[in-house]
Amino acid sequence: MKLWTLVVAGLMAGLPVLAQAGNPAYREISVQGGGSVRGCVRLAGTRPALAMLEITKDKNLCGVSASASRLTIGRENGVRDCVVYLDSINRGKRFLPGKPVVLGQRRCQFEPHVLILRAGEQLDVVNFDPVLHNVHAYDLSGTKQPLFNIAQPIRGQRTTVAAAQFRNASSVLTTCDAGHPWMNAYVIRTEHPYYAVTDADGAFSLDNIPPGSYTLVMWHEGVAIVRTDREKEIPSKYTFEDPYLETRQITIAPRGNTRADFQLSLR
Fold first, then answer.
1. What is the CATH classification number for the domain harbouring 233?
2. For residues 98 and 55, what is the distance between their CA atoms, to the nearest angstrom?
3. I need a labelling partner for 125 at 20 to 30 A (CA). Which of 1, 104, 110, 164 fits?
């Protein structure tokens, strides 16, 4: 299983990579008696006061401060935008192509904040703002070399990033170098379909899983700022804490429904 992380932000240093075990080739089969796992990721303890990041450019559109969008809490302390997946599963249901995957830039934020991209599919990057944005991507898993740099100065501009442009990187960092270091998002690129992103209230579900025992993983990107770099007193880059990673051992019974919840305990 491959996990690709596309991180969009001013996070050049110390950026976390999703931890993964081995990468067996995934084989599509007709699942007999498949089961499911459902659950919720909830914040443990009191909601923290989140830092608002200074905006120094395009204030008429972006405002004077912005959230880094790294912790969104819903009902009953549910945590949005966690990634939950089965680790090292090598066979299961068909991985069907979905709708075109779009990473948008709207009001100086990337949207959605976390999305999943099927290996072999292209990514469409769209600027919905009347200001310049760009997506500058780096290979974090190996060479640390730039992979592509897309400038989008025109509202409505759409650029397609072909699958081949990711090369063999297993994690990719992109930055907005156009004076918007608070912008951040993740695109998770995977070779099997047993991935989910938690909804507004922290819920997730994975269905049609072959009966058996699995490791279920929950990943959250991390919240706290550990360093702010400045250029002429203007924030140019934010570095965040390491991600959170938790696992559960689960058993999927034939046509069974398994429950697995996670607690996100902030450092």
1. 2.60.40.420
2. 36
3. 1
Distance between the two ends of the chain, CA-based, in angstroms?
Answer: 29
How many structural domains compose the chain?
1
One-character DSSP codes across 105-166: EETTEEESSEEEEETT--EEEEE-SSS-EEEEEEETTTT--EEEEEEE-STT-EEEE-GGGG
pLDDT per residue as tens digits for the range 53-73: 989 999 999 999 988 888 999
Instruction: State the DSSP code for 202.
Output: S
> How far is residue 2 from each of residues 32, 37, 88, 129, 171, measured CA to CA in Å?
25, 21, 9, 33, 9
Q: How does residue 35 score in pLDDT terms, banded at 50, 70 and 90?
A: very high
Pair 41, 262: CB distance under 8 Å = yes
Q: How far apart are CA 115 and CA 100, in angstroms?
A: 12
Closest by CA position to 82, among listed 203, 194, 224: 203
Give the domain range for residue 257: 3-264
Q: What is the pLDDT of residues 90-116, one digit of tens each?
A: 999 999 887 889 999 999 998 998 888
pTM of the model: 0.88
Q: What is the pLDDT of residue 238?
A: 84
